[in-house]
Amino acid sequence: MNFPRYSFFIRRQVQYQKNVEGFLNFINKSPTAFHCVDNVKKTLTSAGFKELRENEQWNVEPLGKYFVIKNGSCLAAFAVGGKYQHGNGFALTATHTDSPHLRVKPVSKRDSCGYLQVNVECYGGGIWHTWFDRDLTLAGRVFFRKENGKIRDHLVHINRPIIRVPTIAIHLKRDTNEKLEINKQDNLQAVLALKTEEELNKSTKKDETCSTEKKSGSEAKKHHSQLLELLASECNCQVDDIINFDLMLADTQPSCVGGLNNEFIYSGRLDNQMSAYCAIEGLVKSLDTLPDETFIRGALLYDNEEIGSESAQGAQSEFTQHILRRITRDEHERSIANSFLVSADMAHAIHPNYSSLHDRDHQPSLSDGGVVLKTNCNNRYATTAFTSTVIKEIARLSNVPIQEFCMRNDMPCGTTVGPILSSRLGMYTVDVGAPQLSMHSIREMTSTQALEHYLVFFQGFYKNFKQVHNSIEH
Question: Are 359 and 413 in contact (CB under 8 A)?
Answer without folding.
Answer: no
